[in-house]
Each structure stands twice: as structure tokens, then as C-alpha cells.
Design goal:
Layout lengths: L1 H31 L5 H25 L14 H14 L5 E2 L6 E2 L11 H9 L5 H26 L4 H22 L6 H16 L4 H18 L1 H22 L8 H20 L1 H14 E2 L6 H4 L13 H9 L29 H10 L5 H18 L1 H8 L10 H18 L7 H24 L13 H27 L5 H5 L1 H4 L3 H18 L7 H17 L9 E5 L8 H4 L13 E2 H10 L25 E7 L12 E6 L2 E9 L6 E3 L1 E4 L9 H10 E4 L15 H6 L1 E2 L4 E3 L4 E3 L2 H15 L4 E3 H11 L4 E6 L2 E2 L2 E5 H4 L3 H5 L3 E7 L10 E5 L6 E3 L4 E3 L9 E5 L7 E8 L2 H11 L2 E8 L2 E7 L7 E8 L4 E3 L7 E5 L3 E6 L5 E8 L4 H32 L5
Parallel strand pairs: 4-6, 10-11, 10-15
Antiparallel strand pairs: 1-2, 3-5, 6-8, 7-8, 9-27, 12-13, 13-14, 16-24, 17-18, 18-23, 19-22, 19-24, 20-21, 20-23, 25-26, 26-31, 27-30, 28-31, 29-30
């Protein structure tokens, strides 16, 4: 029995061994045939893409972050999405978004909120995941779905399954390592560009053309709702690809055929129907960006990158062209590695990198024969030449800057050529020596470029580095270049061996057949680059903490966003977090925008000497009693580890959250929801100069009216209401000084309309500079100015004891205000100040420009200012002031009784009782001016104006006792766009019905349908 049992076990082991061998052989056989069918190749692609997605999500998430590389997505796109989701869930979505800029059209955010099915998926996922993780997962899905669509496109063209897989993987790698570094919304390109290729292919295929008729208009509609700016580039790419494909398939290359004209006309008609369908969204979005915002413009030098500033005695910077060309060979990370020297991170948003191995087949493509290949070669050449010349980048990006955001157009055309090279060769190249020289030459060029770059880098080629990442950027730089240099050497070896030794030549198909596997290693290398670039930033924790702070205000201290009051949050959060957008209805005064907020630019440029032409992500001179009313501030949240507000208790109530005692909640008393002015200060000189403190004082008592810039180009002897209006032609939109005539800009027209309305309502003016000088004289004895060139480790040092003679009088006032000025920046918007205690040498902070002196009885001996950069001729003016300035302001505003303000979605309600109805008044809200605000109950003659350099103002005419104003926000172009969309909908339904009926009849005739 024992022996028998042993024999049975032996047989079982043999069967088991045999089973393992069979499984191994089956697995090997499967690997050999893996790419022989499209189904198996696609299954392999799905598995790889799924693994990549899991890794890209799981690894960053395990470090409490997500794949962001610390780029602007942290302060732009993700916060916008968070805000958008929150507003939908709370039912507060409206045309007017109080959290944008100083209040703006919802369509101002369409640049950042990519609405499509992927966003819907992110919205659903946000119910149980963080918004940033939900959104990021869907961003990765766009890349993966785009790769699958590209696989299908080349499958339709009859390319080998192995080619389809490799092209899809290379495309995935490029999308992950390139576009994710730019802006998250651009990841949509990785999905919508291949989709455009598929739709063009369907349209040109007579069997599937009906699908093109149905889906092309919907594609255009979807792209525009996704992002109207990217939609322009996607539609442009679709048209370019249509022309390329048509020329390849046409009997004549130059497309002078009847069939092409019919197809092109039909194709463009479908695109225009899609534009019509989207007009309800496109028109108000485009009009807002064009009319209510601005972008920085470049000089003519950038057209061809004339760069004398970068190279001595050199007119044209070759490095632009050099670094663009080297992007064929290296994966670029614009955040840590920016190669364009004549440009910078802002403009380098593109690449032509398709793995170094892919370049071999791209180069080999140019050796192939055939009519179709020759035509594609011409288009590839045209697109790559256009890509390298900056003027075309400006044309394609609709910008005066050479943004390379259209990179995917030449890139995908190159990928097309590369796929042809792979498909024609079967991954075997170099059987004929003359043909092998072309890819060999490309590898030698890459070798020279990489060696040269390594030799002169990083001094000449790293032109953008993140904070505190100088050494890390260099390591990253060398890591990429050295690794790619190794790959180039491997490819050179594989290309040269068959032509050096006969044995290798006889086995050339196996030698060069290794290239696809090395390409696979490059894709893996790209993944390593990805994980080396995982950002350390994640705003989820900060968001939750700050949300709790705001909820405490809402639930315990009466905060309601509809009251129009703002919150200033000076907590331990990072200063560059986009709190205003991220926290929805917080409406704080510190935030960042890519599109500049034109209506309020004047306020920060002219009134506050803001160094940036936009509200920045950093503090705009902080909170003080003086500028608080300018922004309608009522709530201040500070963290005790930064500073405490030192105000007399008559101005505020202080609260503590029992669950978070480290925070101080200040609710200011006697705040006013808007300011009512009696007098006007008119700008009469080109530069509104002066200190911030004095300007704040003026703006408490006077409405500031800006003069159009064009006035200073003309020879006006006097600049007042009368002379300006005499030279203003409202119909022609021009201004004449008697001899010269100049056309007014849209902004200047708005200013002129304000002046006209004020004049018609009987307002008289004082010049701003006259008021300024009077105020300055009043405070002359309560101020002093000191200069410093001592800048060490980020700090300016000012010796108070040795250089100031009248500081005792200043510091004995109720409060002290700092006004920083330097000759280079005309102001410094990000700084903190400290006073050195004479006894213990400790530093005591100013509260963001204003030191409240009620608890500081010892005279400090030193003033220390932390600043970003050392500048020459820096000076600080120190003002002492007493609280009666603010008390007088409140006393004036208290004369207007029964005041109330509500901002509920698109509706703004303003009420108060006028203490002197015989005089006209000006109301200034704390929101950006826009003529999209329409007064509904305007039987008394109210008029909206631009006041205080960009805020929404309203004129209250004489003899109005009980002021009751109801404004409604209607975005420009929305109603017209809705009508156009209705027409487009009718056209689309008519065309769809026609083609469907035609297709059904055709199939019935063929007997397909009975």
C-alpha cells in the first residue's frame, strides 16, 4: 500500500510538472502571437494603461498629494473645480460669480472649468473622494482614452496591431510627461485631438460618412463647452488634419478637384453648425475675455526672438530654435526644466518628443516611396517648420506671445509619419546602407545636441526654476539628458552593427527588431520622470481647515455671502493658495487669475502702485482700517502664530472657536455695505503718484474718477469735465483736442461715459493731486522717510534711533502705517515689517502694514522689512495717524440711514435713506464695474458708472429720498448666443434627420434592412 501510494504521488508530480510546462509554452506562444490580432493587442494595451493609471493615482495618494508638479494647477484649475462643484451642490450657481476677481461673469471661469462627461464623472466621484483626487483621476482617464482612440484610428487605417500598440504607448507617455506639466485643462487635448482624427477619418470614409455628419457638430459643441480657447486649437487641428488626409487620398496633391471642394464645404458647414450650437456658451465667454479682461502683450522682438539681452552682440537668439529642435530627443518638464532661452516657462508648452527610438522610424519614413508617403512628407515638413518659427505660434494661439500650446498639431502629424515608418518596415530597418544612413544621421545629430547641452548646461538652458529647487532642477536636468544620451548610444549601436560585421547584417531583422523593446524602456523611463516630479502640494487639508473656519463664521458670527462683506484670512496657510476661488463664497481679497481683471487694474495700478497688473495670489497690502472699506471687509481671521490685531475694542468683537483656539475671529463694528460719496477727485495728471496711506485717506472721502489714457497723448491745456466732454465724440468714439484726433479704447470709452454721466448730474470735481497735497500737508509732521541699502538674507534694515529726529511724535499716534517705495518696482506688494524691541532685541510684527500702537509703549530702535528682492533706492515712509480719521468716515456714512445690501446670485439690491436729497450722490460697491449690470427699477434715473478706478458705482440723482435700486446681471452676448444656438439646433436636427433618412433608404435598397 505504501509503495502504491508513492507511485501515485510520483505520477501526480509528473502531471503537475507537465502542466507547468504546458502553461509556460502556452504563455510563450501567447506572447509570440500577442500582437498578431487587434483584439489581443488591444487587450494588452488596456492592461498596461490600467496599471499606469493605478500607479499614477496610488503612489502620489500614498504621499497625501497628487500628480501636480507644484504648477499653477494648485492655485487655478483645481480650486475652480472645487468652487464649481460646491456651488452646484448648494444650488448657488449663477451668471454672476462673486468669488471671481472682484465679482465677475460666470463665463469668465470657462477657461478653467472643462465641462464634459469626464467632469461629470469627477463630480460623482467627489461625493466620496476629495475633489482634487476625483478630478485628477478623470484627467488620467482622458489620456488613457485618448491612447485607445489613437489605437483605433490606426487600426482603421490598416496598420499592424503591434504598431497601433506602440504608437498608443508613446502617445500616453508624451501626454503624461508633457501636458500634465502645463495646465490640467490641456490634458483634454490628449483625448479630443485623437477623437478629431477619428471623426475626420469617418467623414472621409464613404461607408461611415453619416457618423461624421452626426458627430462633428457635437464634437465642436463639446470642445467649446470644454474650453473655448482650446476648442479653437482643436478645431484648427481638425481642419489641418482634414486637408492633410484629403491631399493624401486625392488624385491631385493640390486638391483642385470637385470632390475636395464638395467635401471641404460640407465639412466646414458641419463645423459652423457646431459653432452655432455652442453660441450660448461661446459668445458670452469670448466677449468677456475680449472686453472685460486683458493679457500681457509682447514686443515685436518676440516675433523672431531677437534677443540682444540674452547673447551679447547677437541679434537672433539661436537657442530658441536649438532648444525647440532638441525637444525631439528629450522629454521636457517646463516647471523644472525650461529650455527656451528667448522665452520662458510661460511660453514653452510644447514638445515634439516621441521617444528617441520613435525618431528612427520618423526619419526612416522620409526614405519610403509612394505617392501618399511623398504627400505626407511635405505636410510633415511644413508643420515642423511652422512649429519652430515663433510667428506661427502667435497665430495659432491668438496671442502676441509665442505660446507653443498648439504643439499637438505638428506632434500628431509627426506621430502619423512615425507610424507609417514603423508599419512599412515592420520594425526592421537598414537592409540597404543608403537608407540606413538617414536614421543613423538623426541619432548622430541627437548625440551632438545632447553632449553640447550637457557641456553648457544648466547655466545657458535652465531658465525657470521653482522656489528652493535650484539644485534639484539641475539634478533633474542632468538626469534626463544623460539617460537620453544612453538611449541614443544604444540606438547608434543597433543601427551600426549590421553594417560593421557581416554576422550582424545577416541577422539584421533581430538586431533592429530590438528597437521596439528599447522604446518600451524609454516609456518606462518617462514613468520614472513622472514620479520624480510628484508635487508636494495638496490643498485638501488646507481647504478643509479653512472651510471649517468659514463655517464657524456662518454658523456663529452671522456671516452671509449675500450681505456682500468680504473676509480677510491671514492664517497659517500658504500665501500663494488661491483662497478666494477655492473656498467658494469666502470672497477674500487675495487671489490669483491668469486672465487679468481689467476693470480693477486701474485701482491697483494707479491708486495702490501695484507692481502687477492683476490681483495677485498674494496680499494686496493687507488689512487695515483705512483700506478695509475699499474692499467691504468686515471679517478678519488671523492666526496667533503670525500676529494679532491691535485695535481698540470699540472697532471690533473678538471671538474664539472653542475647537480651534489658535485662531482669532474679528468682526468689525459699524461697517458699511457700500460707500456713499458727495465729492469727486478727478485724475488730471498722467501719473497718480503718492503713498498708499495718503491715497487710502483720500478714497475714504472722495470718489476717484480715472481719466482715459488717450487724454495724455493729446495737448489738452486743461483736463476737467468740460474740456474732456467738448473733445469727445460719442458716436465716433474719438477724442479731439482741437488739432489732433485719437480713437478711444473700450476702457477709455467707459471712463468717458462715466465723466459724461457725472457732468449731466451736476457733479463738480476737485483734482486728485490737489486733495493729495492737502492731505500730505496735514500729515507732514506725523511722518518721516528713511532709506536703506542694507539687504541681508531677504531683509531690509532701517536704523530708527540714529536717522530719525521726529519719530517720537509719530509713534505716539494711535497707529503707524508703512508705505514702502523703491525706484525699480514703484512699490512692493509682498512684504512684512517688524520692530526691534530695545530691551530684549525681539521682533514685534506690524499687522500687515499697520502697527496699532495701543500696547507698545517702548520706542523701537530698528525697523526690519522682509522683501522678496533687494532693490536700490528703497525707502519707507512711516505715518502716524489717529483713529478719528476712521471715526469721521463712519460718522459721514451713518448719515445715510436704513442701509441694506444683498447680492443674491444675479440680483443686487441696494437701499438707504438719503440725508440730503437735494444733492446727487455716488454709491460705490466693492465689486468690479461691468455694464452687464442692468438696473431693473430705473424710473428715477439711476445710472451705473466706473468709480474708484474700476469698482461698480451708481449715480443717485437729486431729489431721491428713499434709494431703492435693483440690479440684475445679464452677461454680454448671452441672449444673442442663445438665439444663435436655437437656430443651430434646428439646422442640426434637419441635417441629422436628412442623413439618417437617406442612410435608411440606401440600406433598404441594398436589402440590408427589410
Amino acid at each position: 500500500m505504501l509503495v502504491k501510494s508513492e507511485n501515485n504521488n510520483s505520477n501526480d508530480n509528473k502531471n503537475s510538472t507537465k502542466s507547468v510546462k504546458e502553461m509556460g509554452l502556452a504563455s510563450l506562444n501567447y506572447c509570440k502571437t500577442m500582437f498578431q490580432t487587434y483584439q489581443r493587442a488591444f487587450d494588452f494595451l488596456i492592461v498596461v494603461l490600467f496599471i499606469m493609471t493605478v500607479i499614477l493615482v496610488w503612489v502620489p495618494q500614498s504621499h497625501d498629494t497628487f500628480y501636480n508638479c507644484n504648477t499653477d494647477d494648485i492655485v487655478q484649475y483645481y480650486p475652480y473645480i472645487q468652487n464649481f462643484f460646491d456651488r452646484i451642490k448648494s444650488g448657488q450657481l449663477s451668471f454672476y460669480d462673486v468669488t471671481l476677481y472682484g465679482g465677475a461673469s460666470y463665463f469668465a471661469s470657462t477657461y478653467y472649468i472643462p465641462i464634459d462627461l469626464f467632469l461629470l464623472l469627477a463630480f460623482l466621484l467627489s461625493s466620496f473622494l476629495s475633489v482634487e483626487l476625483s478630478y485628477y483621476i478623470t484627467l488620467l482617464l482622458k489620456i488613457m482614452c485618448g491612447a485607445m482612440i489613437l489605437f483605433y484610428v490606426f487600426k482603421r487605417k490598416g496598420f499592424k496591431p503591434s504598431v497601433c500598440v506602440i504608437i498608443a504607448l508613446i502617445y500616453t507617455q508624451t501626454a503624461v510627461t508633457e501636458t500634465c506639466f502645463v495646465f490640467p485643462v490641456y490634458l483634454g487635448i490628449s483625448f479630443y485631438a485623437p477623437l478629431a482624427m477619428l471623426l475626420v477619418d469617418l467623414f472621409l470614409d464613404k461607408k461611415d460618412r453619416v457618423k461624421g455628419y452626426i458627430f462633428i457638430p457635437l464634437y465642436v459643441l463639446n470642445c467649446i463647452i470644454f474650453d473655448f480657447y482650446i476648442a479653437y486649437m482643436l478645431v484648427a487641428f481638425m481642419c489641418v488634419f482634414f486637408v492633410i488626409e484629403s491631399s493624401i487620398q486625392s488624385k491631385k496633391f493640390f486638391l483642385i478637384t470637385k470632390e475636395f471642394y464638395i467635401n471641404f464645404g460640407t465639412f466646414m458647414s458641419l463645423i459652423f453648425i457646431g459653432l452655432a450650437l455652442s453660441a450660448f456658451y461661446l459668445l458670452p465667454s469670448a466677449l468677456y475675455i475680449m472686453n472685460q479682461s486683458s493679457r500681457a502683450s509682447s514686443s515685436v522682438d518676440y516675433f523672431w526672438y531677437y534677443s540682444t539681452s540674452h547673447y551679447d552682440k547677437s541679434e537672433i537668439s539661436f537657442r530658441h530654435y536649438f532648444t525647440q529642435f532638441i525637444n525631439y530627443y528629450i522629454p521636457n518638464n517646463p516647471f523644472r526644466l525650461c529650455l527656451i532661452s528667448a522665452g520662458d516657462y510661460i511660453r514653452e508648452h510644447g514638445t515634439l518628443y516621441m521617444t528617441t527610438g520613435g525618431i528612427i522610424y520618423f526619419a526612416y519614413f522620409f526614405t519610403l516611396r509612394g505617392k501618399q508617403n511623398h504627400r505626407l512628407k511635405i505636410w510633415v515638413g511644413i508643420m515642423n517648420i511652422m512649429y519652430l518659427i515663433p510667428i506661427f505660434a502667435m497665430i495659432f494661439s491668438l496671442s502676441t506671445w509665442a505660446y507653443l500650446r498648439w504643439f499637438f498639431i505638428p506632434y500628431l502629424i509627426n506621430v502619423y509619419a512615425m507610424a507609417v515608418g514603423m508599419n512599412e518596415t515592420g520594425f526592421v530597418i537598414g537592409k540597404k546602407r543608403p537608407l540606413a544612413l538617414v536614421p543613423l544621421l538623426m541619432m548622430l545629430v541627437g548625440f551632438v545636441l545632447l553632449v553640447y547641452t550637457l557641456k553648457v548646461s544648466p547655466k545657458e538652458f535652465i531658465h525657470y526654476q521653482a522656489e528652493s529647487q535650484g539644485e534639484e532642477s539641475q539634478s533633474f536636468f542632468y538626469g534626463i539628458l544623460v539617460t537620453e544620451l544612453v538611449f541614443v548610444l544604444v540606438y547608434l549601436l543597433l543601427l551600426c552593427l549590421p553594417h560593421v560585421w557581416k554576422w550582424f547584417y545577416n541577422h539584421n531583422q533581430y538586431i533592429t527588431g530590438l528597437i521596439p523593446f528599447v522604446i518600451g524602456l524609454e516609456v518606462v523611463f518617462a514613468a520614472i520622470i513622472t514620479f520624480c516630479s510628484i508635487g508636494s502640494e495638496s490643498y485638501s487639508t488646507t481647504y478643509n481647515n479653512t472651510k471649517n473656519e468659514i463655517d464657524y463664521l456662518k454658523n456663529n458670527l452671522g456671516y452671509d455671502v449675500t450681505d456682500g462683506y468680504r473676509i480677510n484670512m491671514y492664517t497659517s496657510q500658504k500665501g500663494d493658495i488661491n483662497a478666494n476661488i477655492k473656498y467658494g463664497n469666502v470672497n477674500a481679497s487675495s487671489f490669483f487669475q491668469s486672465f487679468y481683471n481689467t476693470p480693477l487694474n486701474a485701482y491697483f495700478g494707479d491708486i495702490h502702485n501695484q507692481t502687477s497688473t492683476a490681483w495677485t495670489r498674494r496680499s494686496i497690502f493687507g488689512y487695515s482700517l483705512l483700506n478695509g472699506p475699499m474692499f467691504n471687509t468686515k471679517y478678519v481671521i488671523t492666526s496667533t502664530d503670525i500676529t494679532e490685531v491691535k485695535l481698540p475694542q470699540r472697532y471690533y468683537n473678538l471671538y474664539k472657536n472653542p475647537q480651534n483656539t489658535s485662531l482669532n475671529y474679528y468682526v468689525l463694528k459699524d461697517t458699511t455695505p457700500f460707500i456713499v460719496y458727495d465729492t469727486i477727485a478727478l485724475q488730471t495728471t498722467e501719473t497718480v503718484y503718492g503713498d498708499h496711506f495718503l491715497r487710502d485717506l483720500i478714497l475714504l472721502d472722495n470718489a476717484y474718477i480715472k481719466t482715459p489714457e488717450e487724454v495724455y497723448k493729446l495737448n489738452f491745456s486743461q483736463r476737467n469735465f468740460d474740456t474732456l466732454l467738448e473733445g469727445y465724440d460719442e458716436k465716433a468714439k474719438t477724442l479731439t483736442d482741437g488739432t489732433d484726433t485719437i480713437e478711444l479704447s473700450k476702457t477709455s470709452i467707459r471712463y468717458m461715459n462715466t465723466i459724461k454721466k457725472l457732468k449731466e448730474n451736476g457733479f463738480a470735481t476737485k483734482t486728485f493731486n490737489t486733495i493729495y497735497n492737502n492731505v500730505k500737508n496735514d500729515y507732514y509732521s506725523y511722518s518721516f522717510t528713511i532709506s536703506s541699502i542694507d539687504y541681508k538674507s531677504g531683509y531690509f534694515n532701517y536704523d530708527l534711533s540714529s536717522s530719525i529726529t521726529n519719530y517720537q511724535k509719530v509713534f505716539n499716534c494711535d497707529a503707524v502705517y508703512l508705505s514702502f517705495f523703491n525706484s525699480q518696482t514703484a512699490g512692493l506688494y509682498d512684504y512684512h515689517a517688524y520692530l526691534r524691541d530695545p530691551d530684549d532685541n525681539s521682533l514685534r510684527p506690524f499687522h500687515y502694514n499697520v502697527f496699532y500702537n495701543d500696547t507698545y509703549n517702548i520706542m523701537p530702535k530698528e525697523l526690519i522689512v522682509r522683501a522678496e528682492n533687494a532693490v536700490s533706492s528703497s525707502s519707507i515712509t512711516v505715518y502716524g495717524f489717529n483713529y478719528d480719521v476712521y471715526d469721521q468716515f463712519l460718522e459721514k456714512q451713518d448719515k445715510f440711514t436704513n442701509k441694506s445690501f444683498k447680492l443674491d446670485g444675479n440680483n443686487m439690491l441696494i437701499k438707504f435713506t438719503n440725508n440730503n436729497p437735494t444733492q446727487a450722490r455716488i454709491i460705490k460697491t466693492a465689486y468690479a464695474y461691468s455694464d452687464d449690470w442692468k438696473i431693473l427699477n430705473n424710473n428715477l434715473g439711476y445710472e451705473t458708472i466706473d468709480v474708484d478706478g474700476g469698482f461698480l458705482g451708481i449715480i443717485v440723482p437729486e431729489n431721491v429720498l428713499d434709494v431703492d435700486i435693483n440690479l440684475y446681471y445679464v452677461p454680454e452676448g448671452y441672449q444673442t448666443g442663445f438665439k444663435i444656438s436655437a437656430i443651430g439646433c434646428v439646422l442640426y436636427m434637419a441635417i441629422t434627420a436628412t442623413v439618417l433618412v437617406y442612410e435608411l433608404n440606401k440600406r433598404k435598397k441594398r436589402g440590408i434592412i427589410r
